Amino acid sequence: MIEINNFNIIKPVSYIILLLSQPMTNNGKHNLYQKWIRYIREAYDNRNDYLEIINIRSNCPTNNSILDKKFKKNYENMKNNFALIHTLNVVNKTKIKKKTFSENKEYIKPIIVENENNELLKLTNFQMVTFIFQYLNEFDEQSININLWNYCLKSVTFSLKNCIVGLIILICQYTYLTSLFYHTIKNFNPSQDTFIILITVISTIISFLYSYKTILSFYNSLKLYRFLLTLYTDYPSLIFNNKNNERNINMSKGKIRYNLIADFLSNFILPLIIPFINIFIILNSETIIDSILNCMAIFFIIQIDEEVYSTTDYKTEKRSIIFTRWIISNIYCNTFQEFNNIYRLEINNKKIYKKNKKIHPKDAIINMNM
Prior knowledge:
Structural class: mainly alpha
Shape: elongated
Strand order of the largest sheet: 1-2
Strand content: under 5%
Helix content: 55-70%
Oligomer: single chain
């Protein structure tokens, strides 16, 4: 366990923080690529324990300036620190231009680790890892229901299947609802049956509760949509334009906006009007059976997008891990571009070494006093 400004960090997370803070070459058996893949997975698996410790320690007044409980604040602090590190890095690069390295061993580490500002880099990486885990934790903390559209908030792969199916469902939802409402208004004749009135009241109350839950879920996801668009604006490299896209990273700001609009229409506008339309449609039923069937039809319309969307915990976790690696690697490599092949493109260094022995960052020397 390492300590950064009085914060004790659990081992799995400390590994990735130190790896990004002090990567350098050596004649070891393992390369940076292997450590990068393994450490991210271990940190992700232990994120809940990590965040629990962070939440407890961040309540301490003396630590407020270092880490915040809100991921947006940590993101802004991280971005400002990386800007400072970039400035220091540019200055320090001029100091090592005269240095020479042997052909079979070349240092490709952040230049800033050669001076006294190494603690700043550790702190910045600490904030970076923290904000991304806090962001992912928002889904559970805010009870956000994953559907055909907001899956993009923690995925770097745009689903064409979800896009097509979601568009068809949206058309069906509004077509069904418009048809029912038009027919009801045109032939409106409120029933005087006590049971039908009772069913109308009960179903309306339930629809209000369900609509409130759905709207609240969308409202909580809205800030994540906005943040993700900001993130893509701050770091354009998140949009992957490489033709050899083996990891299927194809998310973009336009696709996120499309999902946001579709999510808004299905999980904000629709739940907002359903309870009121529910009153007219069920109250207009001729028999009790018709009222029950109409009630079920209305709930089917509003729930269809969540019922159609299906995924497994394994797929969700896999997408989240890839999302985490992609975000961290792009932010980090924006300052330290010499690590682009290793962290962002995830090219195995041993494969590079076979082609070019001059570039061979075999291992990460990390001093871990734990």
